[in-house]
Write the structure tokens for this entry.
Amino acid sequence: MKKLFFCAGLVVFANLLHAQTRVLFIGNSYTYVNDLPQLTADCAMSIGFAGFPMEIASSTPGGSTFQMHTTNATTQSLISQGNWDYVVLQEQSQLPSFPDAQVAAECFPFAAQLNEQIMAIDSCTETVFYMTWGRQNGDAGNCASWPPVCTYEGMDSLLNLRYRQMAIDNQALLSPVGALWKYIRLTYPEINLYAADGSHPSLEGSYAAACSMIAVMFRTDPYLITYTSTLDPVTAEKIKLAAQAVVFNNLAEWHVGEYDPTVNVSTTSTGLTLQIDNQSNSNLSFTWDFGDGNSSTEFSPQHNYASAGVYSLNYSAMDACGKTVYGYFEIQVLDNQIHEIQKKYVVRNLENEYAIDFISPATEIRVYDLNGRLLNSSLQNQSSFHFEKIKSPQIIQFKMNGINYRVLLGVE
């Protein structure tokens, strides 16, 4: 049973990246052709944000399956080094598109085994499954015995389905390169993503994969990438726009942010004394800024304000892996009384959507995800506003009686 939490104030999730972000790529020729690890690192370097450059390593013997990697000496040695921020897993290009029973026996268990090996060494590492693509004209070698892979569309849909399942089963991130390729094939058919064999990626195909990796691992808009390798600028621009549309604009679909720490904080007061009621997980380390020059690192601090006024109560909460949540409350201190700005609404959890009912008509209603992307809006006066459920927290902003309100709606 999912439990909803509601909290007045704005919350922003962020990964604290190391001075050098360490990424291990485990796969085969779909990864080593065009040197996807280095291509991804070059793209990251061109953005120049904190956490770049990347330190990369790879184990990518041709034709390798997840099962082979569970006993491959190089792969196991690299995993054992630990301290990886991300480990990217790419299965043999055809296996996830095979019949259910074969995938259940030969793919899924070894995806889980690799993920368990990674987590056993360092539970802070995030596994990223690298969704590959259907062959340009389907899998001719297996068409007769398994007709669903006879076409690109059939093979690609099975790969998409199985990689999504692996990400869910292993509570991992998903880099949807195959989904991005499908979008490019439909939107920019002039871009050839395939090498001459109709299977491996061209440079354009690998560049698309790198853009997807940047969006998922760094929660960064791939359109900001300036590195284009030897691609012409027009082609690179189209690929970055496609990655923005498919990957960055839908990060929650790829489980980005789904496993971030959850904060559940409220306030109570007596006179000028503010008490923080912190129901968050006790393994989080909090820093509080009370907005009057004073701060605290206690989990549930109490604070005495010296005078009336309007204060911004800012906090950060960091887990053991360095993932940090930032947020704030607006606090009014009036007539020797502190009042957290009261929620002037009721949220109803419906079957396929949420509804927020306002005690007075509200306007300028906007719904954002935690990356600041606008998901829904209405500028008209509304007594009730309905919006879609997604798998990650949403921020609802509205104006009522001339006052701006922000509400965090999340799921834990």
User: Anything to note?
Assistant: The radius of gyration is 24 Å. Confidence is low (pLDDT under 50) at residues 1-18.
